[in-house]
Design brief:
By secondary structure, the protein is α+β, with helices and mostly antiparallel strands. Helix 2 crosses helix 3. The termini are far apart. The N terminus is likely disordered.
Length: 213
């Protein structure tokens, strides 16, 4: 019973931390040299992967980014997930602790008022909802990137394996050629030895015959 109670306490203690990383909050970030009200969210993915996942998510909706000072801008666009009206969207992704990242998003209607809970609560809620749903995109992108990296590793290993097979085949052929050459030399040595012995014997016989005359 004590172990069960301890386990429950640990689960309760860990739960808020995991949830907090997927929650959004309000902050201020410099966009276009102005301090703007912004919605932020931490993502348990590296900065590069989170940035690319966000770009692809918006690109699938037909939005093309323009990068200025590490800020992605989408000017005068319609993005139904946030607003049916034309808006300006600003996004930024910074490196977070422990291989995580922090995603920032600021949105303004055509009157240039950036989202703020006090005067545009609907727009702010939509931005937060979008960012929370983006967590799944970031996870999928990261998982696909991991799979892609593993496939690249497999391709490299297969290429090296193929090179080793070719090298093995080449060395076996060279070894066979060497073995054949060694056998040929050995046969020639035997023949030469036999020929030399015969000639020596002939010379010896000739000398013996000459000495008897």
């Amino acid at each position: 019973m004590k172990q069960i109670r301890t386990g429950l306490l640990l689960a309760v203690a860990c739960f808020p931390t995991s949830v907090a990383l997927s929650q959004t909050s309000d902050t201020s970030v410099m966009f276009n040299k102005e301090n703007r009200h912004t919605v932020m969210m931490s993502v348990e993915r590296p900065e590069k992967e989170a940035r690319e996942a966000l770009r692809l998510r918006l690109e699938r909706s037909g939005l093309k980014e323009r990068i200025v000072n590490n800020v992605a801008m989408y000017k005068d666009v319609v993005f139904p997930e946030i607003s049916p009206e034309k808006i300006d969207i600003y996004t930024k992704v910074d490196k977070g602790p422990y291989n995580s990242s922090v995603v920032y998003m600021a949105v303004s209607r055509k009157n240039r008022n950036f989202t703020h809970g006090s005067f545009d609560s609907t727009l702010t809620v939509q931005v937060k909802t979008f960012l929370q749903s983006f967590t799944g995109d970031a996870n999928r992108y990261s998982d696909n990137a991991d799979i892609s990296n593993q496939m690249d590793d497999i391709t490299k290993e297969e290429k090296y394996y193929s090179q080793l097979l070719d090298e093995q085949t080449d060395l076996k052929k060279k070894r066979q050629d060497i073995d054949d050459k060694l056998l040929e030399i050995q046969n020639n040595l035997l023949l030469k030895r036999e020929l030399i012995d015969k000639k020596k014997l002939a010379v010896q016989n000739a000398r013996t015959k000459l000495s008897k005359q």
